[in-house]
Design goal:
Helices cover about 35% and strands about 20% of the residues. With about 450 residues, it is of the alpha/beta class. The strands form five sheets. Strands 1, 2, 3, 4, 5, 6, 7, 8 and 9 form a nine-stranded mixed beta sheet that branches. The chain has a four-stranded mixed beta sheet with strand order 16-19-12-18. The longest helix is centred in the N-terminal third of the chain and has 34 residues. The radius of gyration is 24 Å and the shape is globular.
Length: about 450
Amino acid sequence: MGRINAANLKKTIYYLKRNGLRQTWYAVRERLDERRQPSYCRTRLSEASPEGQRRTWEQGEYPVSFSILVPAYGTREKYLRELLESLRRQTYPGWELILADATEDDSVEKVVMSVKDSRIRYIRLEENRGIAENTNQALKYVSGEYAGLLDHDDILEENALHEMAVRIEEGRHRGIQLEMLYSDEDKCNGDRTEYYEPNLKEDFNLDLLLSNNYICHFLVMKRELIQELRFRPEYDGAQDYDLVLRAAAKIGRQEDRIAHIAKVLYHWRCHTGSTAENPQSKRYAYEAGRRAVQDFIREAGWKASAEETAHVGFYALHYEGSIFDSRQDVAAVGGALVYKKRIVGGRMTEEGEVIYGGLPVGYSGYLHRAALAQNASAVDIRNVRVRQECREIFRQVLGVHYKAIPGTEVFDVSLLPEDSDWTDLSLRLCRALREAGYRILYLPDCAIKLKRERLWKK
């Protein structure tokens, strides 16, 4: 734990220099509160599950084939052997590994050649041209229907490809050709004795993705899509983020072609010098990420700029003028509602649960998500702005004409009875807007303080 604690101290000092004492105080308090939560335990398959999954695929041909791409450079023998073993233990056997090695000596090659498995393809690169271009070299040899990305010192859970294959087959049965899939992940220390910081992700959320690369690992993409897009060397360090953003732009509003598997299938190894442990070790990667987001904005034709937030590797979009002028896809923008220094309203699930309810003001929430722009199923009508073209839908659902609080674009909730069921009205409005083909956007910075408790109770 000593190494992890030292890393946390480095992060705190770096955060203080970037953001000042007040924000650092909130961040430290939040971190201490998090430690009071139950510790994370890695969930593994039961003893019977791996064999049961293998038997599933014993009959006939495998319905999906995967090519796993690994660019290697000076990889430690221990890490490389563990990576290879994690692939060979996969309960789904329809895979090949394409390992593109730019190491100057033959240390990596010797390890690979000592593992007798015909599914492992070793590609010797003539020179080290960076992670993006090295991966592009591996892309030339892809024969699988889908390509998966795996870092040279990380580990796949043994059911990773099984889960991907099952989801792809489920999509086919529904007439959907999945283009991109991703899973949850966690981190582990160098010797894999500790697993921590699980990243339990959301289903595809465009604006959350524009805030940070929450998709990350384990990522699988249709072969034709990834070979068309390729990796761009000028975004080394954020090459996966850049790829995912361009893939999302290519897929567009057909978001049912992007699948999230809500299981931890990938273990990101954190050791000295890794980005995960030391945020300053790859400062250039975060700037590359910001440029990738700015590229997406430019291609979309939005008048906005991507800027770093208080948290390293997280971004905010700043729009010129009204957001509705740039974002024709957005029908409504909502913000948080605060009462007694805690969030009591804002982004909601389709069932009406306030996602960040109870979070103290100044806290950023799990993986900083409460501080990031994101798409929402619903937002609270007591703090909502609705684009002009959608105000007739507003009137049809709520029975009143849209009128804003003077000096703002926020709907004047006093036009509705004080005993209104705010949750029900919010869900009905946002459902109608989504059914009309629009997005709902939650911006945490647009918070409103409620002065009277009765304004937020049903």
